[in-house]
Specification:
This protein is α+β, with helices and mostly antiparallel strands. Helices cover 44% and strands 18% of the residues. The protein has two domains: 21-79, Winged helix-like DNA-binding domain superfamily/Winged helix DNA-binding domain (Arc Repressor Mutant, subunit A); 84-260, Beta-Lactamase (2-Layer Sandwich). The strands form two sheets. It has a six-stranded antiparallel β-sheet, sandwiched between helices. Strands 1-2 form a two-stranded antiparallel ribbon. A hairpin with a 3-residue loop joins strand 7 (202-211) and strand 8. Helix 6 crosses helix 8. The chain is elongated and about 60 Å long. The termini are far apart.
Length: 261
């Protein structure tokens, strides 16, 4: 009997190159910090990691120099928001954007304006996904654009509704945030508008995207000329879309909305 050799795709072999132990340890330290609910001291990290304070301190100093960590005046350490950027990249590479794109495109057609998703990124809100209605628009909002936390709809909503352990580090660093009156109003309505500071006559309205029921991790917004953006019309499009996006991402990520990785 003749043997037939199939043209199967070659199997990927595991690399025999040993990993860098220092990098593995630093990543394990990041995982430990991510599990903490508050800033952590070197001694606590050393006990948790089962290593010396000197080694933990060297790792923390290295991570701080790279922008992943910051030290507080009392000596404790906490993560910066830089890991969120890595989460955004993972989101794109996992193709979640492809799965939510049809929902945003439909919302953009219904609203007749640009629709976007934004997340907190350092001291701004960053547009991580957008869709337009397929016609020429005066309003421009590009993927990757950074939006103010005090004047943009998405930024104001995220600053007001995101968990305090996310927002408080911004406040402590002196980042400008909405005032208490604005925060109270946004908490009451669960939506936010842009301020009237835009001289181009562009307006926006944003609603939250949540995980675990009420934990806000992103903003879904409609963006266009002020004379065309009405609260009732915008909410009629955004709120149902937000529920669909949340449900889709819950199904895709086993119960955890994937916008923060």
């Amino acid at each position: 009997m003749n043997t037939v050799t199939s043209a199967a795709t070659p199997q990927r072999t595991r690399s025999t190159t040993p990993p860098l132990a220092t990098v593995v340890k630093a990543l394990a330290l990041l995982d430990s910090l991510a599990d903490a609910t508050e800033p952590v001291r070197v001694s606590s990290l050393a006990r948790a990691m089962g290593t010396s304070r000197a080694e933990i301190h060297r790792q923390l100093v290295t991570l701080e120099a790279a922008g992943w960590m910051e030290q507080l005046p009392d000596g404790a350490y906490r993560l910066t928001l830089r890991p969120a950027h890595l989460g955004h990249a993972a989101l794109r590479q996992a193709g979640i954007g492809e799965r939510t794109a049809p929902l945003l495109e439909r919302a953009a057609r219904q609203a007749g304006e640009v629709v976007s998703i934004a997340v907190l990124d350092t001291d701004t809100a960053r547009v991580v996904q957008r869709a337009d209605p397929g016609r020429s628009l005066h309003a421009t909002l590009l993927l990757g654009d950074r939006l103010s936390l005090t004047s943009s709809a998405s930024g104001r909503l995220l600053a007001a509704l995101c968990p305090q352990d996310v927002v408080e580090p911004l406040r402590e660093r002196g980042v400008a945030l909405p005032d208490d009156d604005a925060v109270g109003l946004i908490n009451g309505t669960r939506w936010a508008t842009s301020t009237d500071d835009d001289e181009d006559g562009i307006a926006a309205l944003a609603v939250p995207l949540c995980r675990h029921g009420d934990e806000v991790v992103a903003a879904l917004s409609v963006h266009g000329p002020r004379e065309r953006i009405t609260t009732a019309d915008a909410l009629a499009v955004l709120r149902p879309t937000a529920r669909e996006v949340e449900q889709l991402l819950r199904l895709d990520t086993d119960g955890a909305l994937g916008l923060y990785g």
